[in-house]
Write a structure and sequence with these properties.
about 325 residues, alpha+beta, 60s Ribosomal Protein L30, Chain: A, Phosphoribosyl-aminoimidazole Synthetase, Chain A, domain 2, 4-stranded mixed beta sheet, 10 strands, binds adenosine-5'-diphosphate, binds thiamine diphosphate, binds magnesium ion
Length: about 325
Amino acid sequence: MSGAPDEFDLIAQLFAPLSASYPGAFNLTDDAALMDVPPGRQVVLTMDAMVAGVHFFADDPADLIARKLVRVNLSDLAAKGAVPFAVMLAAAFPQGIEAEWLRAFADGLGQDVAEFSIALIGGDTVSTPGPLTLSLTAFGHVPTGRALLRSGARAGDLIWLSGSLGDSALGLRARQGQLTDLNPLHRDFLIHRYLLPQPRVALGPALIGVASAGMDISDGLVQDLGHLARQSGLAAEIRLADLPLSVAARTATENNNSWLACILGGGDDYEIAFTADPAQTQRIRQLADDSGVALSAIGQMTAGQGVAVMDRQGKAMEVAQRGWRHFSNAGEQP
Ligand SMILES: Nc1ncnc2c1ncn2[C@@H]1O[C@H](COP(=O)(O)OP(=O)(O)O)[C@@H](O)[C@H]1O
Ligand SMILES: Cc1ncc(C[n+]2csc(CCOP(=O)(O)OP(=O)(O)O)c2C)c(N)n1
Ligand SMILES: [Mg+2]
Ligand SMILES: [Mg+2]
Ligand SMILES: [Mg+2]
């Protein structure tokens, strides 16, 4: 492909190679793909869209935009305990987009297709007079009947969280010109966490038979745990002191307490929150050691409803920011 991109060259030259490992994708030359499911497994499907100016900045590197798109979707699959195997891409590219940008985008897609052993099995390519708009559908599989659901938590279960919380939301604030007193290394780390989330693809499947419920944290810990608690018919209580913070996030919040709200409700974490019977604690600690992904017990499920955040004195805190909403009704209680 040289000069101005052509729709069919783009598909044949840049996207088709990413389907090579999947015969049912017909090298992206047919109307649809065919999918077989391994015996004893169920397909898990998820779709997340990303829009320039809403989920990422239009001038973010094209390869990282593509990889973030893959990763936010694989995060949902991991939260269900699923092993990812395929994705479908719907891309609306702004008119006049450059061939070089598309090549970088496809390179990024290819990097993550390889890294996560998945295939691009189809999609659609259109132009838009609006901002770059991307949607990915991701497919994974789990042993039939064993997927982790939001509804499986029981009273007394501990709440666990992978990785560290708030890095990405702080990275976004740093890019927006806030958090100006960060040291450059911390700033780069936080921005990297924003640009390139790390879906917990190995952890998810390992949690089957260990966790009672799971979800990924995309909107903000407090809001998202609220969804899990509601679906399980329970309340969630988390302890501020036990939230896993990176050195960079800890430093940022030490200097300025108002960033705490960002950690509790800033979103873009793409970490997995799961619940488990306290009897599973040893196994979970072993999983963390084996996988190299930190797992922290941050609270417990109790009878009741809602999410309470306990401060360092054990008192319920006011939470200024519970999580991201694309739309909200004025006057509605969050
Ligand atoms: N436009 C839509 N049409 C159908 N289902 C949707 C739509 N938007 C969201 N959903 C469904 O609503 C549920 C919650 O979505 P969402 O909050 O985006 O979850 P997540 O944060 O895990 O991506 C999911 O089951 C999702 O498939
Ligand atoms: C430029 C920019 N501004 C703001 C945000 C913050 N933000 C946008 S959407 C979102 C929540 C997650 O996106 P969503 O579409 O709700 O994904 P899902 O919850 O469906 O996985 C957050 C925290 C961002 N990521 N980038
Ligand atoms: Mg979603
Ligand atoms: Mg999710
Ligand atoms: Mg959301």
